Every structure is written in structure tokens, then in C-alpha cells.
Please model this.
Amino acid sequence: MLQNILMFIISPFIRLIRYGALKLIKKFHAPDDHRPIIAVSEHLLNGMVLPSAFHIFRESKFRELAHFGKLPISEHDRIFNELEVAGVWLAIAYLRAVKSLVRAEDYHFWQKVELHLPKQLQVILMGLGVDGANAKLVKQLILMRGQEYDELADKVGEASDEGKEDFRKLSPKMKEIATMVQATAIGTADHIRRGKLQKGDPLVSYLIDWLLALQNKIAKFVKKL
Model:
């Protein structure tokens, strides 16, 4: 009990120290030094994306919407992989969208982080005991899903531009982010349903809320670093 209380007290300080270290290595790294890219990628994944995906996976509401009670354990594992991939792709797509809005000297840094994230996930999974072949398959799945969700985002954007006045008022970059979140949620829900997603499925709205919250967290990190 005492250990839990102490960890609760010191955790904010640990996060502050870690953030400060990341900020310093980003600011003063040499152009050919890849370590800051790895460190920031690792923080995005282990500090934000993967815990968020695991939290949603454990949520009773999500499990109810995903019909966990009717599914075998093997399907649970597959669904977690889809959540994991969705979260990583969200981070990649968000960095791709906003790297042109950050300071000019930071553009290439965030571009390198964006490109490195799938590789870093592969490294993290192998560190957790996943064999190299399966870890590589997850990396490949991220890129495959990303291409799929990019194509879906184009269709979502067209439909939103035609039917939603609030959407039309957004800046081009905000439209890109909004359609990316929606497309990732729709695509992920469809894969969870194994291609049998129905119009109006509440799982889509649930995943949109999750991805928006994760995107806001990533946005704050990028802005402050």
C-alpha cells in the first residue's frame, strides 16, 4: 500500500524529468544522431499509444460493443492487435499532418519520428518477447492498414465536405486530421467486425472518441516538446 502511495506521489516528477530529458536531447542532438528519434518514438508508443490501446481493450463498454462474450480468446487477441495498429497509425498520420505546422527547424525531426514509429513498435514487441517474425508482421500490418485508411479518409472527407457545414469551415489541416480519425475508427471497427460493419454501429462512435482523446494527448506532447 505504501509503495503504491509513493509511486502516485513521485510519478508526476518522473514524467517531468523524462519530458525534460526528451526536450534537451531533441534540442541539442546532432543531425546524424538517431537516438533522439528513437527516444521520442519510444515515448509516444510506450507512454501514450500502447497504454491507451490496452486501456480501451480492457474497458467493459468496449468489450460490450465488440461482443467479447460471444468471441473466442483468439479473437480477443486479434482485436487487441487492431486497436494497437489503429493507435500507432493515428500517431503516424497526426505527425504527417502537423509536421508542416511546427517550427521550420523541427520539420525534419518530426518527419523522422513519423517514419520510425513502425520500426520502434517492432523493437518494443521483440523486447516483450514477441518473436521477430510476428513483430515484423505487426509492423507490416500498420503500413497496410495505413494505406487502407488513407483511401477511406478521402471518401470520408468528400462525404463530410458535401454534408457537414461545420466540417467545411475547418482549415485544410484540421480537415485532414478529422477525416483521418474518422477513417481509422471506421476501418478499425470494420476489421473488428470482420468486414460486417453495419451503418450506425455504435462501435464507430466509441472508437472516434478514443482516437480523438489520444490525438489530443499526442498533440499536446508535440506542441510542448
User: Anything to note?
Assistant: Residues 49 and 87 are 6 Å apart (CA to CA). The two ends are 34 Å apart (CA to CA). The chain has one domain: 34-224. Residues 1-14 have pLDDT under 50 and may be disordered.
